Amino acid sequence: MVKKDNNQQDFFINNKSSYQSKKIITAIDIGSDKVICFIGKIDNILDKRKVRLIGSGYTQSKGIKNGAITNINDLEESIRKAVDLAENRANLEVENVSVNVSGNYIRTERIFGELFLNNQIINQNHIAEVIEIAKKKFNSVNKKILHVIPSNYIVDNIKNIINPSGMSASKLGVKLLFIYANPNHINNLENIINNCFLNVTNFTAKPFTSAISALTDEEKNQGSVCIDIGAGTTSVSTFIDGSIVFAKSLNLGGWYITNDISKELRTPFDQAEALKTLYGNALRGANDGEDIYQTPLIGGDDDDRLSFSRSKLISIIKPRLWEIFVHVKKCIEQSGYSDISNKNTIITGGTMELPGSIEFAERILENKVRIGIPKGINGLHEEISGPAFTSCTGMLLHSILLQENEIKTQEKNNNFAFKILEKIMGSGF
Fold first, then answer.
1. Strand, coil or helix: what is 377?
2. Which end of the chain is more exposed for a tag (fewer CB within 10 A), N or C?
3. What is the pLDDT of residues 171-216, one digit of tens each?
């Protein structure tokens, strides 16, 4: 047997240690209501079912509104608090994090690429080549690419091919979905994260990550729409044949409902949020006019309080909720996939905790709706298992998928390197 030298040993050791370093993954979901930090531990990198949540923390968002940064220092403070809470519960310090992007900064574009093959058998190299052809057609000026996703392949004019590998063809086409954001916004976010002594490994789009956790594999394959109604933004994504084909964020959310309550009842914003949470409903009940509550007035004395009925509160909530779902419906119709994707409609996000919201959504969207809750990882206790935490869970799952692809590529490259070394040093290596 040929003895390995120190450099060869380091090659194997470093490769193994790189696997170990990837066992801890961290996600930061920056919303208009909360900043959430999840820390997960991967027991088996190649088995996403073995992911455990070992630390979580969330705090009220400051310095951000409708996905837009309004105060750098305040947002940095909110991120630090959420990360500190998660680190304390996980009993470790993190360095690398994934960060979510939402709001009007999210854009999508579909690009078609084509490769002529002269009746060859399609292999992975051909697939990689046609993807690169499509990528080169994308104008990336003033765009920060977050995701590049093959929606489907076309083999000799036969559309909607999921995996063309092994097929004989004269030409191979691919439709790529580019999800991108404003680069200045991304740079500002990255600077804030770096100021927290953290390193951003990747940015993700909220419409994508919410769906990863909320939708089942069958729903993604059948055709589905995932709607995430947060505090300041609402994200819409469409899946067909297992792949995302459309994504968009709207500057509408539960914050606007709370703001309407605050203005109409002349009560502080925090009090309006409490009223919405405790007594709010999307639908009227028979006895709502009999339920009377009181709330303090802005600028008033402790004894200055406004009496109002539950019916009054609902009458404030309904118009804004109606506006949100009307815009969502219009967004779905304009996507070009409404006929296919409307088989399943899943709605997630903290706003969907409002009683009656599902029934209300079904009336506006004219479709059966279910609530999407976070799933796919172990360790989600009751406090963080509601729809408000779906996107952050999806970020962890997305990080795992990235690692799986990276490891497979690394193993492929390593196998190639081993073969080269064997040729150089002999079969005894």
1. coil
2. N
3. 999 999 999 999 999 999 999 999 999 999 999 999 999 999 999 9
Do 146 and 267 lie in a common domain?
no
Rounded to an integer, what distance in angstroms lies between the CA atom of residue 291 and that of residue 22? 54
Residue with token string 């779905």: 332
Number of separate domains in the chain: 2
Helix intervals (H) in 335-377: 338-341, 357-365
Both structure tokens of 396: 């962890």
Q: Are 356 and 282 in contact (CB under 8 A)?
A: yes
Kindly report the pTM of this predicted structure. Answer: 0.84
Is the domain of 214 the same as that of 179? no
The answer to whether the CB of 242 falls within 8 A of the CB of 220 is yes
Residue at token pair 């009377």 = 292
Strand partners, 294: 307
Which residues does 109 contact at the CB level (< 8 Å), separation at least 6?
138, 177, 178, 180
Residue 58 lies in a domain: no
Domain, as residue range, for 357: 206-372
